[in-house]
Amino acid sequence: MSGPVYDRVALIGLGLIASSMFWAIRKAGLAREVVGTARSAETRETAREIGLCDRVTDTVAEAVEGADLVVLAVPVGAMGAVAEAMAPRLAPGATVTDVGSVKRAVVEAVGPHIPEGVHFIPGHPLAGTEHSGPRSGFATLFDNRWCLLVPEPGTEPEAVARLRALWEGMGAHVEEMDADHHDLVLAVTSHAPHLIAYTMVGVADDLRRVTDSEVIKYSAAGFRDFTRIAASDPTMWRDVFLTNKDATLEILGRFTEELFALQRAIRTGDGEMLHAYFTRTRAIRRGIIEAGQDTDAPDFGRVKTGA
Ligand SMILES: NC(=O)c1ccc[n+]([C@@H]2O[C@H](COP(=O)([O-])OP(=O)(O)OC[C@H]3O[C@@H](n4cnc5c(N)ncnc54)[C@H](O)[C@@H]3O)[C@@H](O)[C@H]2O)c1
Ligand SMILES: O=C(O)C(=O)C[C@]1(C(=O)O)C=C[C@@H](O)C=C1
């Protein structure tokens, strides 16, 4: 078991990611105290009831008081306002991080509110589920998953090393990355796939009226995976698309071109093209496995550590 990495951690927003962080920090003894707060009284009440956090405060200002690590775990579109509210109460030498799914927008919204003498190290754990809220977290969510940190050039290496130690203590593997590169990579691996899943489930729902619910009743495994993804939190995903607009549109443009090419191959009966295409994509999945990624559903994206 690792010793405490921080004295007092403040979790702002008590949903899936923050509650998972609390259980993981507690399990590994990574902080002496974890203080939490959430915008809604109902969430704070639930947190107190289930013992989520050592202390739950009613305001963000109270939560960050004396904390040496503050974690913003709210939807990306809410990060700037939360940062503004807490800024005057941040302790000198503290670190502020976040877990948002988009990084450039967070750097721009939060960065300007961070006072001199406070470290700001944006982050993103590549782990989640379709569930949200204070009851949805669990201690093993980050086990063997990536966490990407995007420190601005000039950030104190000791502050980055400490945050890295926290994530590693929670079971994650840490890499550093530039914010724009992060947003492009995630547009391909997470954001566009979510939009495609939302669309496919929307199409099936439209069709329900003409197929008398059969699309739902006979939904096959592939479609079920889409419905899981499409059940993800609407606020979170609205904010992801509004804040990672350029990269997502770039990937969707490419996706549409490929879709048209496949559509044409189907219409013209070009079986050779279809076969060659599917052979190439199958090889990509095999390549991921050979590169050490465990792709067994539902853990696609885990980092393989053992034999
Ligand atoms: N869910 C995932 O799979 C996943 C994975 C990695 C990162 N993330 C990122 O983590 C962050 C939190 O996501 P989550 O899944 O824990 O969400 P969640 O919906 O489970 O929890 C969000 C929390 O933020 C609070 N909140 C919502 N709007 C707010 C506002 N305007 N002001 C203040 N607080 C507000 C909610 O009350 C709740 O406590 C998001 O930025 C998301 O992009 C999510
Ligand atoms: O497993 C899921 O449910 C997820 O969608 C998790 C997922 C992803 O796309 O992999 C979703 C958003 C995040 O920012 C990180 C992880």
Automatic annotation (TrEMBL):
<dbReference type="GO" id="GO:0006571">
    <property type="term" value="P:tyrosine biosynthetic process"/>
</dbReference>
<dbReference type="InterPro" id="IPR008927">
    <property type="entry name" value="6-PGluconate_DH-like_C_sf"/>
</dbReference>
<protein>
    <recommendedName>
        <fullName>prephenate dehydrogenase</fullName>
        <ecNumber>1.3.1.12</ecNumber>
    </recommendedName>
</protein>
<feature type="domain" description="Prephenate/arogenate dehydrogenase">
    <location>
        <begin position="7"/>
        <end position="296"/>
    </location>
</feature>
<dbReference type="InterPro" id="IPR003099">
    <property type="entry name" value="Prephen_DH"/>
</dbReference>
<dbReference type="InterPro" id="IPR046825">
    <property type="entry name" value="PDH_C"/>
</dbReference>
<dbReference type="GO" id="GO:0004665">
    <property type="term" value="F:prephenate dehydrogenase (NADP+) activity"/>
</dbReference>
<dbReference type="GO" id="GO:0008977">
    <property type="term" value="F:prephenate dehydrogenase (NAD+) activity"/>
</dbReference>
<keyword id="KW-0560">Oxidoreductase</keyword>
<keyword id="KW-0520">NAD</keyword>
<dbReference type="Pfam" id="PF20463">
    <property type="entry name" value="PDH_C"/>
</dbReference>
<dbReference type="GO" id="GO:0070403">
    <property type="term" value="F:NAD+ binding"/>
</dbReference>
<dbReference type="InterPro" id="IPR046826">
    <property type="entry name" value="PDH_N"/>
</dbReference>
<dbReference type="Pfam" id="PF02153">
    <property type="entry name" value="PDH_N"/>
</dbReference>
<keyword id="KW-0028">Amino-acid biosynthesis</keyword>
<keyword id="KW-0827">Tyrosine biosynthesis</keyword>
<dbReference type="InterPro" id="IPR050812">
    <property type="entry name" value="Preph/Arog_dehydrog"/>
</dbReference>
<dbReference type="InterPro" id="IPR036291">
    <property type="entry name" value="NAD(P)-bd_dom_sf"/>
</dbReference>
<keyword id="KW-0057">Aromatic amino acid biosynthesis</keyword>
<comment type="pathway">
    <text>Amino-acid biosynthesis; L-tyrosine biosynthesis; (4-hydroxyphenyl)pyruvate from prephenate (NAD(+) route): step 1/1.</text>
</comment>
<comment type="similarity">
    <text>Belongs to the prephenate/arogenate dehydrogenase family.</text>
</comment>
